[in-house]
């Protein structure tokens, strides 16, 4: 168990060192001549007009919230799927009750038009 | 030093530094990024305690979904340049906030020291099957109630957002 994590740790440190080395080396080697277009956030695409810190629509938040709820549902699905055969019928019934409860909420959201993009 | 305690100290330093970053960074988006680093550090702590499933949950739910929710919240509420000081309306109540935090911290640490920390259910190496048995047999009512809670949260959010849409 420990040795597996040592491998992961060494890999992580190696990746960090690689990224750092690339950044430091490019800082040392590159000529430093900035002009406004170079300092833009995006090198291609349209130029931004007006302030870029704007308030977004509330629909984004609804999508994020529904994603969060089904993410939690996925977490519950994982142990059930992994031990599906050992758990048997009672767990199957419990899981379907859980899913039906969540799907009722989802259908309500759908009916209320939370997923519509106006 | 033992390797797991070394990992613990590295992770604890990372959590504390990024936790301080959440509070002290000037840009609110940088604060959100520091918060994600804190969540991932906590996932690392779970790994050192050999609880891989919990670490996976921590990364999926907290560093994934909750972080997205926070970033979307920033997108929705931020005006101006996203300065941390401007976003918090209660930033000027420094003294009363300090008193509240002091009471809170002393209360929580008193309770932590008082709790005997008994192990209620011993989990063995094959953690997943233990967790699955606990969820789907021993605590099946709580599991269904979690489903009800999630549905209520979903419907409540829709109700609030619908009110916002009607008003604005």
Describe the structure.
Helix content of chain A is 69%, strand content 0%. Chain A is flat. The longest helix of chain A is centred in the last third of the chain and has 29 residues, at 84-112. Chain A contains 3 helices and no strands. Chain A is mainly α. The mean pLDDT of chain A is 83. Chain A has a single domain, classed as Methane Monooxygenase Hydroxylase, Chain G, domain 1. Chain B has 168 residues and is mainly alpha-helical. Chain B folds into 2 domains: 1-89, NADH-ubiquinone/plastoquinone oxidoreductase chain 6, subunit NuoJ (Four Helix Bundle (Hemerythrin (Met), subunit A)), CATH 1.20.120.1200; 124-168. Chain B has 7 helices and no strands. In chain B, α2 (28-48) packs antiparallel against α3. Chain B is globular and about 50 Å long. The N and C termini of chain B lie far apart (60 Å). The model of chain B has no long low-confidence stretch (mean pLDDT 84). At the A-B interface, α1, α2 and α3 of A face α1, α3, α6 and α7 of B.
Brief overview:
The complex is a heterodimer of chains A (118) and B (168). Chain A has 118 residues and is mainly α.
Write the layout of secondary structure elements.
The complex is a heterodimer of chains A (118) and B (168).
Chain A: H1 2-29, H2 58-82, H3 84-112
Helix pairs in contact in A: 2-3
Chain B: H1 3-24, H2 28-48, H3 52-77, H4 84-87, H5 94-114, H6 127-138, H7 140-167
Helix pairs in contact in B: 1-2, 2-3, 6-7
């Amino acid at each position: 168990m420990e040795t597996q994590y040592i491998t992961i740790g060494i890999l992580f440190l190696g990746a960090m060192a690689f990224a750092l080395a690339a950044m430091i080396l490019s800082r040392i080697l590159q000529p430093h001549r900035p002009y406004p277009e170079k300092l833009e956030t995006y090198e291609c695409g349209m130029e931004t007009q007006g302030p870029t810190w704007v308030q977004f629509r509330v629909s984004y938040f609804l999508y994020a919230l529904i994603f969060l709820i089904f993410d939690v549902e996925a977490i519950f699905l994982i142990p059930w799927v992994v031990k599906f055969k050992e758990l048997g019928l009672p767990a199957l019934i419990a899981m379907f009750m859980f899913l039906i409860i969540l799907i009722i909420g989802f259908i309500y959201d759908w009916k209320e038009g939370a997923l519509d993009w106006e | 030093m033992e390797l797991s305690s070394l990992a613990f100290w590295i992770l604890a330093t990372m959590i504390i530094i990024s936790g301080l970053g959440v509070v002290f960074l000037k840009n609110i988006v940088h604060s959100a990024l520091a918060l994600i680093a804190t969540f991932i550090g906590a996932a690392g702590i779970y790994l050192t305690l050999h609880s891989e499933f919990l670490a996976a949950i921590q990364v999926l739910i907290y560093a994934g979904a909750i972080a997205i929710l926070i970033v979307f919240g920033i997108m929705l509420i931020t005006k101006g340049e996203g300065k941390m000081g401007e976003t918090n309306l209660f930033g000027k109540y420094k003294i009363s906030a300090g008193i509240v935090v002091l009471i809170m911290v002393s209360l929580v640490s008193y309770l932590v020291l008082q709790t005997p920390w008994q192990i209620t259910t011993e989990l063995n190496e094959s953690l997943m099957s233990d967790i699955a048995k606990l969820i789907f047999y021993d605590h099946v009512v709580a599991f269904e109630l979690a489903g009800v809670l999630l549905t209520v949260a979903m419907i409540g959010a829709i109700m609030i957002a619908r009110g916002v849409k009607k008003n604005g």
